[in-house]
Design brief:
The chain has about 625 residues and is of the alpha/beta class. The chain has three domains: about 150 residues, Chitobiase, domain 2, CATH 3.30.379; about 375 residues, TIM Barrel, CATH 3.20.20.80; about 80 residues, Immunoglobulin-like, CATH 2.60.40. The protein contains 18 helices and 28 strands. The strands form seven sheets. The chain has an eight-stranded parallel β-barrel, surrounded by six helices. A seven-stranded mixed sheet has the order 1-4-5-7-6-9-2, covered by helices on one side. Strands 25-24-27-28 form a four-stranded antiparallel sheet, with no helix packed on it. Strand 4, helix 1 and strand 5 form a beta-alpha-beta unit. It is globular, with a radius of gyration of 27 Å. The N terminus is likely disordered.
């Protein structure tokens, strides 16, 4: 490229000489890594320049520079062009035609990152970051290496629910950074539901004035033990949304907005009761409504979790006019080709009793309420298509007949995705049994409160998004994979991170890497990734280090055989048999052992002399 297109960002070094060895701990795993035959490493210094050979790459150069400033406290002194002693060169064009592909090569005087497109260059920078240490007091030196890499899927997503609990715009940006560091490229933003409407719609300010706030929230797991009686809520202004979208675009993350319909509509109905089949009926809050809701009655934003019968009236044309107005503002804000409308868990009880819905069924000669839902979805799809966008929804949109151009997110297992792919519809696989990150990731007694379920790191990593029952042609419709963070029981940003990490590393590898999965190698690389999470100021769960105790009792022999395991790499497990807390000085576990008396077994994992994960306890009675 012409020199006029070169942009310089200056990097400065913490002076140290140790060479980083993190090149062998890259997540997700690159397609090919070749260690080069050279004794000289690349060292970032005050005379190192980043050269972006095209304006579209400047945001990537800025990202790298900002990372080094933030993580290594580096200044940005100006140097004259041509005075640098080495360079990090960013360029477009390589042998691959796959969007997001890149090559990275390091030598003594230059790091070259070449991408098929700007996204590829950005992903190369994420790999470069993982070649650097997760320690601000260590040298920024990179051993000679060549990496060739490309993503398996073009849709690599995480969903974040901000309706049940609201998170600040600053945290949404931090979460986007987390996706970028894992080479994920979609944030599915669940913006509306029964429990809160979180996006400003200028034509309908009541949606946030009323719908963004609930009078209280149930305490504990559903159905709860009471109500907080505390007003709760929040929403994003359109100015904040635009800022977040721009922030994400610089990190090659596309935000897919979700405006839920026709079910999960209590927040909107609280603001506009006419959207309901029965506007004069009070909202049912189940066992523990707030004191204010008891007094006020009428339509209220939901305070309890679950599925609720008050849904949009499919027989009322005013509902469709309002939804089209809302979607117009959403489409004007978000550049995403996909517009998510939910479509899941829509009870049909009110439709069965509603005169207008029943008249709609009769007029259109529909078979039942499932076909009425299909009518609702298809009518909305026509509008979304008219705006040049694609409707995407949960697999319930298959019920009653799939809209002609719709994309399906298969969450109730894989059956919906398989059916949609066989109908030649595009699919994003997101089955709850493998990728619902609101599930416990360890034994419930050792974990913070969650919705239920049990989804370990190893189970996430075992997932294969392309079902074996599909033909090669049908399999082409599996466009990607997504993990979901529903937030009924996730009220803080720290807990969002805890529930996401390190499981996000597993789903990122599934989405990115085409090579056969290797659990042992993944857990080896994850050891360094845990250091990075701490370095990046993210709260990651250590549940994979919790010791699983296996006890085999032989009553006849009067003994029990004890063995330990974890989901971590080559765990260092220490244990006690006298009820005391294990420490790094306690007995080191090497192999299964026998006990011949009643004991209390306590075991824990350790790294560098410090305990990681929780202590597990097992009583053996002989």
């Amino acid at each position: 490229m012409k020199s006029a297109f070169h942009f310089f960002s200056v990097l400065v070094l913490v002076t140290c000489t140790q060479i980083a060895v993190a090149q062998y701990s890259i997540l997700p795993k690159p397609g090919r890594i070749t260690e080069l035959n050279s004794a000289d490493s690349f060292r970032i210094s005050a005379q190192t320049a980043v050269l972006a050979s095209h304006p579209s790459l400047q945001s990537s150069a800025d990202f790298l520079n900002s990372y080094l400033q933030k993580q290594f406290s580096l200044a940005r002194p100006k140097i004259k062009k041509g005075k640098q002693i080495n360079t990090i060169s960013l360029a477009l064009g390589n042998a691959s035609t796959v969007s997001g592909a890149y090559t990275l090569e390091t030598g003594a005087r230059e790091v070259k990152i070449s991408g098929t497109d700007a996204a590829g260059v950005f992903y190369g920078i994420q790999t470069l970051i993982q070649l650097l240490p997760a320690d601000s007091n260590t040298s920024l030196a990179i051993a000679p290496v060549q990496i060739e890499d490309a993503p398996r899927f073009q849709y690599r997503g995480m969903m974040l629910d901000v309706s049940r609990h609201f998170f600040s715009a600053d945290f949404i940006k931090k979460y986007i950074d987390l996706l970028a560091l894992h080479k994920m490229n979609r944030l599915h933003w669940h913006l509306t539901d029964d429990h809160g409407w979180r996006i400003e719609i200028k034509k309908y300010p009541q949606l946030t004035a009323v719908g963004a706030w609930r009078n209280g929230t149930i305490i504990g797991n559903y159905p709860g033990s009471g109500n907080t009686n505390q007003r709760y809520g929040g929403f994003y202004t359109q100015a904040e949304v635009k800022d977040i979208i721009q922030y994400a675009e610089k990190r090659h993350v596309t935000i897919v907005p979700e405006i839920e319909m026709p079910g999960h509509a209590s927040a909107a109905i609280a603001a506009f009761p006419y959207l309901s089949c029965f506007p004069n009926e009070a909202t049912h809050i189940n066992k523990y409504p707030s004191d204010l809701t008891k007094v006020k009655g009428g339509k209220q934003v939901q305070e309890t979790w679950g599925v609720h019968n008050d849904v949009y009236c499919a027989g009322n044309d005013s509902v469709f006019r309002m939804m089209e107005d809302v979607l117009t503002e959403v489409i004007n804000l978000f550049p995403s080709s996909y517009i998510h409308i939910g479509g899941d868990e829509c009870p049909k009880e009110n439709w069965k009793k509603c005169p207008r819905c029943q008249q709609r069924i009769k007029d259109l000669k529909l078979k039942d309420e499932h076909e009425l839902q299909s009518y609702f979805v298809q009518r909305i799809e026509k509008f979304i298509n008219s705006k040049g966008r694609i409707l995407i929804g949960w697999d319930e949109i298959l019920e009653g007949g799939l809209a002609p151009n719709a994309v399906v997110m298969s969450w109730r297992g894989e059956a919906g995705g398989i059916e949609a792919a066989k109908q030649r519809h595009d699919v994003i696989m997101t089955p709850n049994s493998y990728v619902y990150f609101d599930y416990f990731q360890g034994k419930a007694a050792l974990e913070p409160m969650a919705i239920g379920g049990y989804l370990t790191l190893q189970k996430v990593y075992s997932y294969e998004p392309i079902p074996s029952v599909l033909t090669a042609e049908e399999a082409k419709h599996i466009k990607g994979v997504q993990a979901n963070v529903w937030t009924e029981y996730i009220a803080s940003s720290d807990k969002v991170e805890y529930m996401s990490l390190p499981r996000m590393a597993a789903i990122a590898e599934i989405a990115w890497t085409s090579q056969p999965k290797d659990w042992s190698d993944f857990t080896r690389r994850l050891e360094t990734q845990h250091n990075r999470y701490a370095f990046w100021n993210y709260t990651a769960a250590q549940s994979a280090y919790n010791v699983k105790q296996s006890i085999q009792i032989d009553s006849d022999a009067g003994r029990a055989t004890v063995s330990f395991s974890t989901e971590s790499f080559e765990p260092e497990i220490h244990f006690t048999l006298d009820g005391s807390e294990p420490s790094a000085k306690s007995t080191l576990y090497k192999k299964a052992f026998d006990v011949r008396r009643s004991v209390t077994v306590k075991a824990a994992s350790f790294r560098n002399g410090k305990q990681v994960g929780k202590t597990t306890i097992q009583q053996i009675i002989l």
